Amino acid sequence: MASTDFAAACIAGALLAACAAGASVAQEFNHRGWAGARLPGDRENGCAMALEVQRDAGLVVYADSKRRVRIGLASRAWKLEPGKEALAAVTFNDGPPILLKGEAVLPTTVLFDPMDFPDDGGLGALVEGARSVKLTYDGLYVRARLSGSARAMRLLRECASAPPEAAPPPEASDGGAGRESVGRSADFAFLRQGMDALEAHRKLIEAGWQADGDAPAAPADDGALKVLRERGLPAASCSGETCAATYADAYGNALRTTLGAEGEPKLRGWRLNPPDEAREATKSED
Predict the structure, then answer these.
(1) From edge to edge, which strands make up the β-sheet containing 85-92?
(2) Fewer CB in 10 Å around end: N or C, the chain?
């Protein structure tokens, strides 16, 4: 990850308190300066994206699986009191100010909801169509030009609506196995997050895994699935540009991989024996 990408992703990671430890977060997308990340453990399966607007500070937009959108600011220099109520105002494209009410979700981050209209996705639509934004909070005035915000908002919504498994488990773990693996080590050292999806597929085949079943033809309106099919990749289903493919081995183990189909397909994560795909293992009679 480039240093500028790390800075923006780390601002988004402030929602996880990752920046305090100097840690990066698993990046879902990067578009025109917007860095998006899934929030592991978030009760609403939320994702956040951040745009760095000044040194160590950035504009943050949060979306969850229920289509709620919040806007806020993050700075690693802040020491806010979590839970403390916060008021702000935001202006899009030099329009009228919108009053905001929210709270400090972490010492480094504040998130707001609009006070003047219900949370029905309207705030996300404003971000999506904006060329510029001004946000005032506690004496701090931030103004930023928004480039690519329409595309970034679509990627953020897709991130939030994707299955939780899209967030890859640590490579050294068993991938959050739904049950104990049978006849196979959970070592997937030959896989790495962000690697070419076709390379990952070939390595799995070499390791004795087989694509699980015959993949159906891609519907004409499913662009992501068509991209994977054209590259010879299996995929069971897609949500936006996030797709899932499953494999099986001779011992009855199941492996689900999560692929990003934007541009050149990449491996986002994997999970051994996910609960909804686990099967009864068969023992050899030898």
Answers:
(1) 27-31, 34-38, 47-54, 57-63, 69-75, 109-114, 98-106, 85-92, 132-137, 140-145
(2) C
Kindly state whether residue 177 falls inside one of the protein's structural domains: yes
Same domain, 65 and 146: yes
- Using one digit for the tens of pLDDT, what is the confidence trace for 56-112? 778 999 998 888 899 999 887 888 898 899 999 999 998 899 999 999 988 888 999
Residue 233 CA to residue 201 CA, distance in Å, equals 7
Using DSSP's 3-state secondary structure scheme, residue 135 falls into: strand
The Cα 73–Cα 51 span in angstroms is 10
Regarding whether 210 and 181 lie in a shared domain, the answer is yes
**Structural domains in the chain (count):** 2
Q: How far apart are CA 110 and CA 103, in angstroms?
A: 6
Q: What is the pLDDT of residues 99-116, one digit of tens each?
A: 999 999 888 889 999 987
Alpha helices in the chain (DSSP H): 3-12, 122-129, 149-161, 197-206, 223-230
Most confident of 13-17, 132-136, 282-286: 132-136
Residue 154 lies in a domain: yes
Sort strands 237-239 and 254-260 into parallel, antiparallel or unpaired: unpaired
Output the six-digit token pair for 143.
Answer: 């103004």
Stated length of the chain: 286
User: Is 106 inside any structural domain?
Assistant: yes
In a domain, 198, yes or no: yes
Q: Which residues pair with 246 in a beta bridge?
A: 256
Q: Which domain holds residue 60?
A: 3-161
